[in-house]
Amino acid sequence: MARPVENRAATRTITLHRASAIEAARGRGLGIIRNLSTQGAMVETIVPLAVDDALDLVVATGVRIPARVRWVRDGRAGLEFERKTPLSHVLDRSGGGEAELRRRMPRLTIAQPVAITDASGTWQGTTIDISTHGLRLACDDPLALGRVRLDLPGLPPIGARVLRRQRTHYGCLFDRPFGMADVTAWLHEVERR
């Protein structure tokens, strides 16, 4: 089989398993950056994409990179960035270790009802955003830091810990991380309702 013609204008940096969020008109979800350069990236995702789609690639550092889809094949897509992007915007993971990495996982904004249950009762809240490792929620009732069960529409009960509180906003860490495809599939299901 003939090798495809190389069309890259910039040198590729191999980067395996770098998490990202993808926001396009056809859908949004999580993906994995398989390789990148200052001018583009190859991503793996179940987000439906087509050639010439415009999208935003949101990386763990919080940087939003506007891009255009140049090719799609077998759950992967080649992206061309609108402007040259320093690799440090994508690769920087300075300090913090595992806890910092969990907080910097790409998050998808989603407002869904959530029931929060601990040893003293059940309260109602609304999700603010979700990642593979946890979610942020708003709840008018004061929640204690510690173990909870989260009940979200379309998902089995989730064991988690409330780790952070800032007024009525709470940061929760799942007992077991979700796969990127699972979070994306759940998001698509919720958005279809």
From TrEMBL:
Classification via Pfam families: PilZ (PF07238)
InterPro entries: PilZ_domain (IPR009875)
Domain of life: Bacteria
Domain PilZ, residue spans: 7-84, 102-175
Entry protein name: PilZ domain-containing protein
Species whose genome carries this gene: Sphingomonas corticis
Lineage per the UniProt record: Bacteria, Pseudomonadati, Pseudomonadota, Alphaproteobacteria, Sphingomonadales
